[in-house]
């Protein structure tokens, strides 16, 4: 097949540098003895087709380049929570073979820093995203239930904790906003209540909001542990390697895409070690790196594409064995909602040169994970692809938490030096606050699922279902129109 190569500018940059990774290519053979059957662990709405496959995965050596070539139905670029759950969806819901490529490994991107709350308390019923939020929640609950039904513990496998969530305010104005929010959540059919200062004394004794304070409470909300969940999903995907339907190409950056001169379709993903041909779909799920990848792909065609995803840096402070504070629920301050949706100032650039108060914020989020670690967040900064720890941000996170939990003021951050971990990740920020889940116009076999900012863990399962339904031309559970590429592309 005649093809041309489009070279990508290095998509993965850490501190402006392209990391050099060794190559790890795994065709996993054999099924781990402690393996959880992914067929059982999929949600009830996903049907596993037990068809035997015709051989779909072939390998060969590209003589001119010395690179190996392999053929799959679906090639996914990016093995964060979005790429991995998309792979899972195809493996469980179709008979297609899947390859997943990552410049590093699954938790190297935003996913490894995720706090893990899958909450509805800060969501607005009736907005464009509501349907996808609710569908994703439904799928997460179904997954946890199926794990439980297999005799496994969702706490151990996913870090699943059904603590309920609270959105808290300290002033009369904030409480009036929280009460309206509770009304809206009730009207949308959720269980929700407003807790006054007095109610909170028994529900969350360490929380001090003052006499005017209160909280919107959703008792059914839950959290996961992002790293455990990723490990579980990976393990389930690897089950399909034995039948030649799944392979991971980690520590292999996608460097270019091969395009057919005749059809214009993208036929393969070129990595540093392999050429991965795709028979059905190539899906870009590379989080905040997806923009440069798509830009370079499209640059030689008649389509103008500016996929405006930007890295929005976030810090989390994780404290081991912290005895001074116990949390019964997951908490978030009301200000988080505004900080999250704050739009870019027109002067802000990726280099971070226009980084200012408008584009930097710290709002209190507090959870306790399944191992009893206190997890405090979170910050939002537009400082390009920089992932260095900024101690001043950690101090701000600690001090902000102290305003809600005064007991923390009795402990200095220095004392915690040995028991703390800082996680930094780059959220894939979209100016309109929505991910894109769609095919790339005029390139029928190329798709994108990226731009989930601070809610990629929450929306992962619904996103995976949606993109798989688009590729397979299956009916949708959720209207995909709000996530269309057409909203951002100029043709
Ligand atoms: C501090 C913090 C707290 C958060 N808390 C929550 C939360 O509580 N709940 C929630 O729902 N969400 C949360 N999020 C958001 C969530 O983590 C992200 O939305 C989600 O992880 C995005 O997943 P992704 O797969 O799109 O991107 P990523 O996880 O960033 O994955 C992208 C992958 O693409 C790979 N890649 C890049 N370039 C290339 C290339 N050229 N070739 C091959 N691979 C490439 C990278 O190595 C990376 O592994 C949080 C984020 C942060 C930073």
TrEMBL record:
Q: Cross-referenced Pfam families, in alphabetical order?
A: DAO
Keywords annotated in UniProt: Oxidoreductase
Q: Name one GO molecular function term.
A: oxidoreductase activity
Q: Where is the FAD dependent oxidoreductase domain?
A: 73-469
Q: Which GO terms describe its cellular component?
A: cytoplasm
- What PANTHER family does the entry give? FAD-DEPENDENT OXIDOREDUCTASE DOMAIN-CONTAINING PROTEIN 1 (PTHR13847:SF287), SARCOSINE DEHYDROGENASE-RELATED (PTHR13847)
Instruction: List the protein's name.
Output: FAD-dependent oxidoreductase domain-containing protein 1
